[in-house]
Amino acid sequence: MTDDMIIGEAVRLVNEGVSVTLPVKGWSMLPFIIGWKESVILQKPSQPERGDIVLAWVEGCRYVVHRIIRIDGDRVTLMGDGNVVGTEHCSVSDIKAFASHVVDADGQAHDLYNLWRSVGAKMWYRLRPVRRYLLWLYRKCKRIKR
């Protein structure tokens, strides 16, 4: 089974109202979600808001789990927390699921929108000019290999 087939099935289940736990690959959501070690719990999307972490079909070619940084009418701009530059775009209808929790390597689920994560995400967004250095330091301290 390909990743797209697995994600397609996850989207189908979410549309039926089932919560789905999906492993995350990649480093694009560091430091809030660690790829290959953590998973996200996906739920049926409601009205998207700035700051939400969503599973979206972007630019007509791939799925990403990224944070909404802007909504202009039907146009949504996403950016991974671990990205230094670069954004993706989609329409509101391309948002397939809402990530409500992150599941760590021990199987513990943590709310993605608790106070410290919400404040941290806002601060992290403002630190875009120095993210490259902070992420390097984070990877060194956590011994995360690229």
Question: Topology of this protein?
Answer:
Blueprint: H1 3-15, E1 20-23, E2 39-43, E3 53-58, E4 62-72, E5 75-79, E6 88-91, E7 95-103, E8 109-111, H2 115-126, H3 131-142
Antiparallel strand pairs: 1-2, 2-7, 3-4, 3-7, 4-5, 5-6, 7-8
Word description of this protein:
With 146 residues, the protein is α+β, with helices and mostly antiparallel strands. It contains three helices and eight strands. A hairpin with a 3-residue loop joins strand 3 (53-58) and strand 4.
Features:
eight-stranded antiparallel β-sheet, globular, 146 residues, 8 strands
Helix content: 25-40%
Euclidean distance between termini CA atoms = 25 Å
Radius of gyration: 15 Å
Q: Please report the number of helical segments.
A: 3
